[in-house]
Design goal:
elongated; Serine Threonine Protein Phosphatase 5, Tetratricopeptide repeat
């Protein structure tokens, strides 16, 4: 549809801070579980976040990145939104059942995807590169833990949880950076 002459185009908000925030919060809570830092029945809150904020929130951000013509953002947010929805579905369907080593392969496959997405970040913002590097390490360490049969809060899974916490902190920073810098109209937070 052609735009009327003299009528300014409507500004579309940057969807990346939403995607990063949804990713960060969901990753933080699951990583606290993996690191063994939280106790009690935590699975329900992780699944709820995975469906709503990590899943749906990132899918929406990814679809808006398609609209903005940002291939990287569209692929990243849509894919990790899909990751969270698939994670929630897996937990819901297989909770308490032996999944064998398929979880390890699942995490390793996400590690492969994250690695080539990390390579794509090397020419962009430093904070994005750090997020993807830490996420790649998180997936690899969690996959190794799953291949060894480690439960949350033990061994490699616990280390993966701690790296995941660092990943979440970096993603929170990336989200905050985008929102704060836009609102202030200057680069308050570097990166």
């Amino acid at each position: 549809m052609a735009q009327a002459q003299g009528v300014p185009a409507a500004k579309v908000a940057n969807p990346a801070p939403l995607g990063l925030a949804g990713f960060a919060l969901t990753t933080l809570i699951l990583s606290l579980v993996n690191a063994g830092l939280v106790t009690g029945s935590t699975l329900a809150i992780v699944v709820g976040l995975a469906l709503a904020y990590g899943g749906l929130g990132q899918l929406i951000a990814g679809w808006w990145e398609f609209k903005n013509g940002n291939t990287f953002g569209a692929v990243a947010f849509s894919s990790y939104g899909g990751f969270w929805v698939s994670f929630a579905a897996f937990v819901f369907m297989f909770q308490g059942k032996d999944a064998g080593n398929v979880v390890a392969w699942y995490l390793l496959a996400w590690g492969i995807f994250t690695f080539y997405m990390w390579v794509a970040t090397l020419k962009g913002a430093r904070v994005t590169m750090v997020i993807f590097l830490l996420l790649w390490i998180t997936f690899v360490v969690l996959a190794l833990g799953a291949f060894n049969g480690a439960a949350a809060g033990s061994g490699l899974t616990q280390i993966g949880g701690y790296v995941g916490i660092l990943t979440a902190i970096a993603a929170f920073y990336g989200s905050a950076r985008a929102v704060i810098n836009e609102e202030w109209g200057s680069q308050v937070l570097p990166g």
